[in-house]
Specification:
This is Transcriptional regulator. Belongs to the LysR transcriptional regulatory family. Keywords: DNA-binding, Transcription, Transcription regulation. It is built from eleven helices and eleven strands. It is 44% helix and 24% strand.
Length: 290
């Protein structure tokens, strides 16, 4: 007796027809007959009586059908349990993320994945893009989520989301910036060297030929926002990082100057190194599409 014969017997009882059973089980009709006969021979009894038009269960057939359903259920439970043992996600996933992603996007991604795979644990490193790239190179993290362009040859970079960078100012200063010319000789609050946002800021300054009066470097997105709120200057920042401030009106975006710039958020990992099962789950269930 094997599970295929039991499945065929159960299907035959339910369909009450050899031809339909053969179709449903993707078998030939003679094979269905052989499998039923094998069961009857093994238990030395008759389960099925058939006429030219119908089949009937014997008393032993009714008994065996009830027990066969139990066997089928036990088999499926074992199969599902063994599959789960080999495929269920567990263990530690080490993620490196640049500040904007790590502070404003990654918590929601992790919550989404944790809801599906509660046995996963996470270790998160938040730093600028250059630092995260180095951690990927040195295998300190399983993968990185960064902004900007990675130039290292041993790193594979895959964009996963568009990001919009905007110029922000404090609410009481917004009237001072009516044209692009008004941005000349202004104070700026900027990110440190190695940051993807710093790279974009330098490109913006060069594109519009802006002269900087002075700058304050803060290696934190939250610190930059607080600096701008307190009148320390202008800043270029991801729109993803200021949603709460836009809702409560504590920061203003200079959209009317049409100086916003786009960039990509990217998934990075060490070239030539196979992606782990847990990383693949993150890519499938947590990472937003572009």
């Amino acid at each position: 007796m094997n599970i295929d014969e039991i499945e065929t017997f159960i299907t035959l009882v339910q369909e009450k027809n050899f031809t339909k059973t053969a179709e449903k089980r993707s078998l030939s009709q003679p094979t269905v007959s052989v499998q039923i006969k094998n069961l009857e021979n093994q238990f030395q009894t008759q389960f099925i009586r058939r006429t030219t038009r119908q089949i009937f269960l014997t008393e032993d057939g009714h008994f065996f059908y009830k027990e066969a359903l139990k066997i089928q259920n036990i088999y499926r439970t074992i199969h599902e349990s063994l599959y789960a043992r080999h495929h269920e996600a567990s263990g530690l996933l080490k993620i490196g993320a640049s500040f904007t992603i790590g502070e404003y996007l990654l918590p929601q991604m992790i919550a989404s994945l944790k809801g599906l795979y509660p046995n996963l644990t996470f270790a998160i490193t938040i730093a600028n893009t250059d630092t995260i790239m180095q951690k990927v190179q040195h295998f300190d993290v399983d993968f990185g989520l960064v902004e900007g362009t990675i130039k290292a040859k041993n790193i594979e970079q895959t964009p996963f989301k568009h990001d919009q960078l905007v110029i922000i100012c404090s609410t009481h200063d917004v009237e001072n910036y009516q044209t692009v010319h008004d941005l000349q000789n202004q104070r700026w609050v900027i990110r440190e060297e190695g940051s993807g946002t710093r790279e974009s800021f330098e490109a913006l300054i060069e594109t519009f030929q802006l002269t900087i009066h002075s700058s304050i470097t803060i290696s934190s997105t939250q610190g930059i926002k607080e600096g701008v709120k307190n009148g320390l200057g202008l800043a270029l920042i991801s729109e993803s990082a200021i949603q709460e401030e836009l809702r409560n009106g504590s920061l203003q975006v200079l959209n009317h100057l049409h100086m916003n710039t786009a960039r990509q958020f990217s998934f990075i990992h060490r070239q030539g190194v196979p992606v782990t099962k847990n990383t693949n789950l993150f890519l499938k269930h947590a990472l937003p599409s572009k």
